[in-house]
Amino acid sequence: MLSIVVDTNQFLSGFIYHGMIKTVFDLILNNRLKLYVSPTLKTEILEKLKKFEVNGQAQNEVMYFMETRGISIEPTVKIDVCRDKKDNFLLELSEEARADYLITRDRDLLELPGAKWKNTKIVKP
């Protein structure tokens, strides 16, 4: 089974706006993909939900999805390669999880050499 990491903006796009990534979440729900999350990712998602004043029910749905469908790990590896240092945690999570894909629209991540980090391909949804 393929394993993935989804960045914050794409995660919210799937839940709040039902963007293209919604199909990926359907595959996770049907146990066709493994989703990896970290405490840092969960915190960032929750902060953005509050920033955009997303209602409590939607916040609960997102957090419930992460808790029940996500495999939570705390990366031990430390990486410092991104131009935007706030993105390094996604590479750390991807590496620690040995994720097949990191799904993002973040240009800083997509512009890494070969659009990959170690064995993780960095792709748009």
From TrEMBL:
InterPro entries: PIN-like_dom_sf, PIN_dom, PIN_toxin-like. Signal peptide: none annotated. Coiled coil: none annotated. Pfam families: PIN_3 (PF13470). It comes from the Bacteria. Residues 2-111 form the PIN domain. This is Putative toxin-antitoxin system toxin component, PIN family. It comes from Candidatus Daviesbacteria bacterium RIFCSPLOWO2_02_FULL_36_7.
